[in-house]
Batch of 2 targets.
Target 1
Amino acid sequence: MSATSESIGRMIRDARTSRDWSQKRLAEELGTAQSAVHRIEAGQQNLSLSMINRLAEALEMPLIQTATQGSMNFEIQGPTTLSGEIDVRTSKNAAMAVLCASLLNHGRTVLRGIARIEEVDRINEVLTSIGVKLTWIGEGNDLEIIRPEHLKPDHIDERAARRTRSILMFLGPLLHEFDDFKLPYAGGCDLGARTVHPHMSALSKMGLTVTATDRNYQAKVVRDVSDARQITLIERGDTVTENAIMAAARTPGVTTLRNASGNYMVQDLCFFLERLGVRIDGIGTTTLTIHGVETINTDVEYYISEDPIEAMSLLTAGIVTRSEITVRRCPVEFLDVEFAVLDEMGQVFEFSEEYTSHNGKTRLVDVTVKPSDLHAPLDKIHPMPFPGLNIDNLPFFAVICATATGQSVIYDWVYDNRAIHLSKLSELGANIQLMDAHRLLIIGPTAWRGRQIDSPPALRPAVCVLLAALAARGTTNLMDVYVINRGYEDLPHRLNKLGANINVFWGDPPTDD
Ligand SMILES: CC(=O)N[C@H]1[C@@H](OP(=O)(O)OP(=O)(O)OC[C@H]2O[C@@H](n3ccc(=O)[nH]c3=O)[C@H](O)[C@@H]2O)O[C@H](CO)[C@@H](O)[C@@H]1O
Ligand SMILES: C=C(OP(=O)(O)O)C(=O)O
């Protein structure tokens, strides 16, 4: 399955779903079987020119032209009032952790409900390149993963690997199989320097030493670690916790991990490993005890849980456009502080009874956002490790504070470069001043106005621009939205179902005449 056929497959699926057609309906239009459409959309079918033409005709979509005309962009017409209900999809970050953890299992892994996003495609390209067999099954959101007996890290797709930070999480699984291996430097959002040292420090307790050479991490493993290991993380990061858990999962004996993150993606990883027979005590707390096993060879199915960051994004869409919408399937445990801060700012919500996600663990609620008169919070808004306000949800408060009356301060102590990207909101009319690299002063309310903007090179700030554009008078052309597609599945189409007016176009923005 090549990257090109996968992205063409996705384009076809997007065009089909934007017409509300089932795979069966498209198959009828093409005069082919539904299973063929399924294979095409999954990128598992070589397309003949005649099939490309048939697809282009049926979907009224000039596929070849489209595919070669540069970046994807969004044209957003505002202001919009939204209404209706929308479901939160599963999380990028949990999918990343669990996909990496599938390397630990020699049995068949099926991951259900995976969001079809660029980040998943990148890690899948990397997995495929090292010999893992991946097949999209069901309606196209379930992934079957079968790893070979011997992985081939030497064949790694470097281009794909360098575009995702999650490649770092191959260190934990691979150290079980190789004494000596190399991984390309990690990518991900441009948020300023993102440290890898905590990963090296934690994994050194499992016998791994890593040196950085020529844009690669060169890893060496010495296997004489004690049976009862104590690892105290030097910071409570998410991916470092996940890496240490994956290293411990297949190292026989007990590993106690202190200062661990209890965040949503870490919990999903732990629930998945439990299904594989790895006992983990303390899930959701800062001390985890992992009972490692020598080998894992289990056929397993796991549902990834709903994304609290996507939930916050969709709630923000309702708040900034002063609309009434219901965001279903919000993982409430990971949004508690966000709701408390919004409540203080005057935001009115209605909550449904709690129910459980498909993984049988994560607590969900449906949340209705009511149009509200917001005022600035009394204190600065700042993130903390779980169970604090999530760092990835902080950017949405910049848009919300710009909507509120009064003066707010957003304090991002975590990243050197994320606050800077949020100052882009001033191009849409917000009164935002960067006090220093970590603090924003925002004076609202804002009369948002549309214009052409290049996406900032960071996922959440880019989505913030999109959300503000929904409330902005006129047209916003948001250019080069790869960064948004990295973490959100089909956002324009889903927001359009609520009444937004977002067009997808490729290449240059349309001219006025
Ligand atoms: C694939 C994935 O899951 N990515 C998420 C993960 O990235 P990841 O776990 O890779 O986070 P990073 O290590 O890049 O960033 C965390 C930042 O917080 C700092 N820090 C963190 C904890 C702490 O106790 N002290 C401290 O200083 C780190 O030094 C670093 O600057 O977690 C980040 C923080 O939640 C999220 O933004 C990312 O979306
Ligand atoms: C920073 C993020 O992701 P990543 O770690 O993949 O760059 C994010 O999800 O906002």
Target 2
Amino acid sequence: MNICVFCSAAELADVYTESAREFAELIGSRGHSLVWGGSDVGLMKVVADGVQGAGGRLVGISVDFLQNVARENADEMVVTATLAERKAQLLERADAFVIMVGGTGTLDEATEILELKKHGLHAKPVVLLNTAGYYDGLRQQLARMQAEGFLPLPLSELVAFADDGPDALRLLEA
Ligand SMILES: C/C(=C\CNc1ncnc2c1ncn2[C@@H]1O[C@H](COP(=O)(O)O)[C@@H](O)[C@H]1O)CO
């Protein structure tokens, strides 16, 4: 399976890097490929290192203005002209999506993928990996959207929630 991971480009605390490494090593050791934003920085690097170290394939989708931080030894590296094109490529190249801890970039990618799914423009699994309860607030907001009629379909059809890497992979492989 080609698993697209959205996650932070920042250097983060051990609680986040350890969880990311565990999940990345699972991706690689189970024979899956990583599709990601292609950068060799922060948590994105931790995930790429973990997948590659465990024998998995790396498919990076970078963007012109971030090419200077793109990973050099990825199996494949695509460079798009714009962020919008990058998101389209990430969607096309992935069979499933995992949203790990991140900031506005991760949120932008996550909401786009969920919005496209809401409109039936793809039906790929999306798992939100809620390391250390980082996304408790977002989960609560999404639950409120559902409870108050803002979502045209059940939340469970849009996204699944996982507490750790093994749980996330179990949901994707199910
Ligand atoms: C030059 C520096 C960092 C490089 N920044 C990024 N590189 C690649 N991809 C990025 C970068 N920033 C955002 N993205 C995309 O959004 C997600 C991460 O954003 P967040 O705001 O950090 O959560 C990630 O999935 C990327 O696809 C300086 O260190």
